[in-house]
Write a structure and sequence with these properties.
The structure holds two protein chains of two kinds.
Chain A lengths: L4 H30 L15 H6 L3 H6 L9 H13 L12 H10 L1 H7 L7 H9 L13 H7 L1 H11 L1 H17 L7 E2 L2 H7 L5 H13 L2 E2 L5 H5 L6 H11 L9 H7 L3 H9 L14 H8 E3 L2 H9 L3 E6 L3 E6 L1 H10 L1
Parallel strand pairs in A: 1-2, 3-5
Antiparallel strand pairs in A: 4-5
Chain B lengths: L1 H5 L10 H23 L2 H20 L26 H7 L3 H5 L9 H17 L4 H21 L1 H7 L5 H13 L4 H10 L1 H7 L7 H14 L5 H12 L5 H7 L19 H13 L5 H9 L3 H12 L8 H4 L2 H11 L7 H11 L4 E3 L4 E3 L1
Antiparallel strand pairs in B: 1-2
C-alpha cells in the first residue's frame, strides 16, 4: 500500500489527522502550563513597616528607567549610564538594585562601560562583578590601559587567561609588570594584585625573577602587605626583601595585620612580640584579618596560653630565634632566677 | 527480459478505494495513539509548553498575533487597586512579607530591557527586606518561580543581580541553575567567571572534562575558595593534575582554601600540600579539624601546638563558632594522641609551657609524650 503514491498520501494524511486529534484533549493543559492565568494581585493595606520603607529604594524612578535604542549614539548611552548613578537605590547599601542595568549596557553597548571604567559612573568593583558573571569577556581589546587591569585585577586576568591561554597570559603580565616598574610618568601608584604577579612568575626570565622584588620595592606601586605571602610560594625569593615589602606597605590598622604571621614565619622577631602582646584579646580584631595566637602557634614554640600572657605582661618574655622551632618563647633569666630563689 | 518489459511500475499501480480508506484509518489511529501516549508524559507536555511560550514571545514581540494566543501585558507590577496613588515604595512596605511583594511582580516574556526592569524592582524589594532573612528563605520557591523565565533567556543578567556570598540570594541562583533550561553557552560563560558558579553549574554537565580542568586550573591560580563546597570541588579537579602549582595556589587562598582537601585520602597527597592547606586555615583561626588531627597524628609539631593553644585557653576570639561546632574533636585529638598529665585549660598550658622542650612524638606509641 505504501509503495503507491495514493496509498502514501492517504497514510500520511491519516497520520497527521491522528496526531492533530491526539493533541486535542491535551491542548488546553499545554496552554495552561505555558500561560498560567495570572493570579490576581491582592494589595494588602496593612501597617507600613517603617524599616522596610527606609531600606527600600523609590520604585517609580526605577520603573521609569528607559535605555536608549540599540542604534542610539554613544552619548545617549553615556547619559543613561550617568543617570544610573543618580537614581536613588535605597538605604541598604550592601548592593545596588541597578546591577541589571549595568549588565544590560554590558550586553548592548559595552564600549560605553570601557570608556567610563574607573570613574564614578562605572567603578572597578562593578566591572569585576560583571566579569564574575561571565560578561565583558573581551575587555582587554577595548579598555584604555589593559596592562594596568592585568596587574591590578585578578578577575580581569582570569578572563584574559581563559581567552588567550595561561602561557600567553603569564608572559603578558610579566611584561606589563616590568614596563610599569620602569614607567616614571605614572602620577598615581598602581595598586598591584600580588597574586597576578605570582601567576606571571613562571613566565619571567631568570634575570626578571632576580629583579622582581627590587622592582616591587622601588616601582610606582601600591600593594596589600597581607599578599606578600603569595610571593613566599615562589622559589628563591629573598627573605630580607620580602620583609622589606611588608615593612614598606604595612597598615597602621590592626584589623589588616595578618601579614605579621607571614613576617614571623620569615623570621622577623618584631612581629612575634606584637602578636604576643595581642594574644589575650587579639586587639579585638576579627581572626580572618588578624589572628595573633594563630601566628604564634605557627611560628613559635615554648610558652603557651596564660603563662605566655603573664610573661608578656610582666615584661619577662624572651623571644629567641631557633633553627628547629622558628622562635622559642620563654621567660627571661630574671624570672627563672626568681623562681629558683622561691624554691 | 520480455516479462520485465511488460511489468507495471509498483508506484503506478492503483489501490482500491477501500484499501486507501483502511490505510488512512490505520495511520490515523497510529498517530492518535502515539500522540496521546507521548502527551501522557508530563515532561513532554512541559517541554511543549516551553516551546509554545517561546513562540508567543517571538510572535508577540514582532507584532504577530496568533489565533487563540493572547499577547500578555508587559507591565512589571501587577495591577494595583484603582484610586490608590500612594508611592509604590510605601505600598510595598505595607505588604506582610517578601513573598507577598514577589507576588505583585510579573515578567510576561518581554524584552531584555523588561527583564532588567523586573530584576531591578525585584532587587530593590529584596534589599528593602534584607534584614528579614528567615522570611526570605521561605520566599525562595516564589522567587524562583518569578525569575525562572528570565533565567531561561538571560541567565547572565539574573546572575549579575545576585550576591554570590549572601545565603538566600545564592540559594535562589542555585535553585535556578538546578532547574535547568538555560542556554548552555551562557551557563559556560557564567561558570568561567566565578569558582562558586563553576562548582554549581559544572555538575549539570555543560562541560567536558578537558574544558572543566582548564577553567578549574585558572580558578585555582587566580580565584579563591570562599565556601567549602567550591573549595573541595576545585581541589578535587586540581588533585588530578600532575602540576601541583595550581593546587598549592588554591589551597593557600580564601576563607575555605584550606578545606579543599576534605573528602580525599590524605595519605595519597604530598605532605607539604596537606601542611599548606592546614596552615591556610590556622592563619585565620578557621582550620580544618580533620587536617589538624591528621598532622598531629603524623608527629607534625606545629599542629600539636595549635591544638594545645585551642584547648588550653579561654580566649574568646579563638573559640568562635568554627571551634564550637567541632570542639569535641579537638578534645578527642588531645586524649588520643598525647600522653600529658593535663588535656584541657590552664593546667595544659602550664604543663606545655614548662615541658615543651622535652615533648616529642613517640612513633612506636603513636602519641606525643614527654
Amino acid at each position: 500500500m505504501l509503495n503507491t503514491k495514493k496509498g502514501l498520501t492517504a497514510s500520511l494524511a491519516g497520520l497527521l489527522a491522528g496526531v492533530v486529534f491526539g493533541f486535542g484533549p491535551y491542548w488546553e493543559d499545554i496552554k495552561r502550563e505555558a500561560f498560567p492565568s495570572p493570579t490576581a494581585a491582592v494589595w494588602e493595606q496593612g501597617e507600613v513597616d517603617e524599616q522596610v520603607l527606609k531600606d527600600t529604594a523609590d520604585i517609580e524612578p526605577l520603573l521609569a528607567l528607559a535605555p536608549p535604542s540599540d542604534d542610539a549614539p554613544d552619548g545617549e548611552w553615556q547619559k543613561f549610564l550617568a543617570q544610573l548613578n543618580q537614581v536613588g537605590s535605597g538605604k541598604y547599601h550592601t548592593s545596588t538594585p541597578l546591577l541589571p542595568w549595568y549588565a544590560y549596557i554590558a550586553t548592548h553597548r559595552p564600549q560605553v562601560l570601557y570608556k567610563k571604567l574607573g570613574s564614578s559612573d562605572f567603578d572597578t568593583t562593578k566591572f569585576n562583578h560583571l566579569l564574575q558573571m561571565g560578561m565583558l569577556g573581551d575587555w582587554y581589546q577595548y579598555v584604555e590601559d589593559p596592562d594596568a587591569l592585568l596587574l591590578s585585577s585578578g578577575q580581569a586576568l582570569m578572563g584574559y587567561a581563559l581567552a588567550n591561554g595561561e602561557r600567553e597570559a603569564r608572559r603578558r603580565v610579566a611584561e606589563a609588570f616590568f614596563n610599569s616598574a620602569r614607567n616614571t610618568d605614572r602620577t598615581h601608584p598602581l595598586s598591584l594584585e600580588l597574586e597576578n604577579i605570582r601567576f606571571a612568575a613562571p613566565a619571567m626570565t631568570t634575570q626578571e625573577k632576580a629583579g622582581l622584588l627590587d622592582a616591587l620595592l622601588q616601582g610606582p606601586f601600591n600593594l596589600d602587605p597581607r599578599d606578600v605571602r603569595r610571593l613566599t610560594l615562589l622559589e628563591e625569593m629573598d627573605r630580607e626583601k620580602l620583609l622589606g615589602l611588608i615593612e614598606k606597605f604595612q597598615y597602621s590598622n590592626k584589623s589588616m595585620s595578618s601579614y605579621m604571621t607571614t613576617a614571623a614565619l620569615l623570621g622577623e622577631a618584631r612581629y612575634i612580640r606584637v602578636m604576643a602582646g595581642d594574644a589575650r584579646d587579639n586587639d579585638r580584631q576579627p581572626t580572618n584579618f588578624y589572628c595573633s595566637v594563630c601566628g604564634l602557634a605557627l611560628a613559635a614554640d615554648g610558652l603557651i596560653g596564660e603563662p605566655l600572657v603573664r610573661a608578656e605582661d610582666s615584661g619577662e618574655l624572651q623571644i629567641l630565634p631557633s633553627d628547629q622551632y622558628g622562635f622559642v618563647l620563654t621567660r627571661g633569666p630574671g624570672a627563672q632566677m626568681a623562681q629558683e630563689g622561691a624554691q | 527480459m520480455k516479462h520485465s518489459q511488460t511489468a507495471t511500475d509498483p508506484a503506478d499501480r492503483q489501490p482500491a478505494p477501500r484499501s486507501l480508506l483502511l490505510a488512512a484509518l490505520a495511520f490515523f489511529l497510529l498517530g492518535y495513539i502515539v500522540t496521546q501516549k507521548a502527551l501522557f508524559d508530563s515532561d513532554i507536555r512541559r517541554q511543549l509548553a516551553a516551546q509554545l511560550r517561546d513562540l508567543r514571545t517571538t510572535t508577540c514581540s514582532e507584532g504577530i498575533r496568533l489565533p487563540g494566543i493572547e499577547c500578555p501585558s508587559l507591565s512589571i507590577i501587577k495591577e494595583r487597586p484603582s484610586g490608590n496613588n500612594e508611592p509604590l515604595r510605601r505600598q510595598f512596605a505595607r505588604l506582610p512579607s517578601l513573598s507577598a511583594a514577589v507576588d505583585k511582580l510579573q515578567w510576561n516574556f518581554g524584552s531584555d530591557a523588561d527583564a532588567a526592569r523586573l530584576l531591578t524592582i525585584w532587587k530593590a524589594l529584596e534589599l528593602g527586606r534584607q534584614r528579614q532573612s528567615r522570611e526570605y528563605h521561605s520566599a525562595i520557591p516564589a522567587i524562583t518561580q518569578l525569575l525562572q523565565p528570565v533565567w531561561d533567556r538571560y541567565p547572565d543578567m539574573v546572575a549579575a543581580t545576585s550576591c554570590l556570598y549572601c545565603g538566600n540570594s545564592f540559594d535562589v541562583l542555585s535553585s535556578l541553575i538546578n532547574a535547568g533550561g538555560s542556554d548552555v553557552d551562557k551557563l559556560k560563560s557564567l561558570a568561567a567567571g566565578h569558582p562558586r558558579l563553576l562548582a554549581e553549574i559544572a555538575p549539570t554537565g555543560v562541560f567536558n572534562d578537558a574544558e572543566l580542568e582548564r577553567i578549574a586550573t585558572v580558578h585555582g591560580e587566580l580565584s579563591s575558595g570562599g565556601d567549602s563546597k567550591t573549595a573541595k570541588f576545585i581541589g578535587k579537579i586540581l588533585l588530578g593534575r600532575q602540576d601541583r602549582a595550581p593546587l598549592e595556589a588554591w589551597l593557600t587562598k580564601g576563607l575555605n582554601g584550606g578545606r579543599a582537601l576534605g573528602d580525599t585520602g590524605l595519605d595519597s597527597i604530598p605532605r607539604e600540600l596537606v601542611i599548606a592547606a592546614w596552615e591556610q586555615g590556622v592563619r585565620i583561626g578557621y582550620d580544618d579539624v580533620e587536617l589538624s588531627e591528621y598532622l598531629v597524628a603524623q608527629g607534625y609539631r606545629p599542629a600539636l601546638r595549635w591544638v594545645v593553644w585551642l584547648e588550653s585557653t579561654e580566649f574568646k576570639y579563638l573559640h568562635g563558632w568554627p571551634y564550637e561546632r567541632v570542639q569535641g574533636q579537638y578534645q578527642s585529638i588531645m586524649t588520643r594522641f598525647t600522653r600529658f598529665p593535663a588535656s584541657k585549660g590552664e593546667p595544659l598550658a602550664t604543663f606545655y609551657s614548662d615541658n615543651w622542650a622535652s615533648i616529642h612524638w613517640d612513633d612506636k606509641a603513636g602519641r606525643w609524650t614527654y
